[in-house]
Amino acid sequence: MKSKIALAFQKCEKENRPALITYFVGGDGGKKKSLNILNALSKEADLCEIGFSFSTPIADGGEIQNCHHRTLTSGIRIKDIFDIVKKYNKDKDSKPIILMGYYQTIFHYRENKFLKKCKEVGVSGLIVVDLPFPENLPFAKKCKTNSICFLQLISPTTSIQRAKKIIQSSDELNYLVSMLSTTGGKLKVLPKKILENYNKIKKINPIKKLVIGFGITGKTIRSFKNSDGVVLGSTICKEITRSLKLRQNPVTNLSRMVRDLKKKIL
Questions:
Q1: Residues 190 and 224: beta-carbon distance below 8 Å
Q2: Domains of the chain by residue range
Q3: Which of 8, 15, 46, 57 has a CA 20 to 30 Å removed from the CA of 262?
Q4: Which one of the listed residues 28, 44, 49, 80 is annotated catalytic?
Q5: Weakest mean pLDDT among 33-42, 123-132, 216-225
Q6: Would residue 171 show up in a list of annotated catalytic residues for this protein?
Q7: Bridge-based pairing state of the strands 19-25 and 47-51
């Protein structure tokens, strides 16, 4: 039986387009509004990443850091993220949910308990930013036991030899970091160069899916039409912050924005 992630990519392949993956910090704007944001994003997205808040999100740039700070100060915790995912997955047409965050949260929750809860609420995948290969292998194995895809991160400086080891041990989906920067950084590398690196990594195992993230915006997304998928994060978080500051409804604004961005990769 194919996983929810595999079925999502299968649908994209039939439509001859990359998967659109959206990211936002769970609980931003409050639990109710956050669920509404997730529902709105998932109408256009093929997979949905949800960040779980952390006080020192070292891989994230200013836009996403603002969201982490906002959710933490409003009292949102990991249990609230699980509640949001559980409610969202009651919809039979729900998209695969990938949780993204930092290992300390998982460590304090306890690995086995955390994965059990993920499985219970219907999480399809996990990205743990500060748990690199090969140290992440025992945890990745636990994820697989719980039918949860552990996404390995591959950076621009990862050698082909190391990339081969990572891909060989990985699950069905991996994440290529586009450049040496935090999330939301301005692309310092031409999309052409990013794609050259992407194609080298993709050739290692063409069957496994590889998506591109970090620095993807409305101006650059079209360049990655031939990849397996693109991740939009900081662009979305920036719009949430702008909407909340102007006391506008982020749900309405995000729906329009993501719909327009998706048209660029069709």
A1: no
A2: 4-263
A3: 57
A4: 49
A5: 216-225
A6: no
A7: parallel
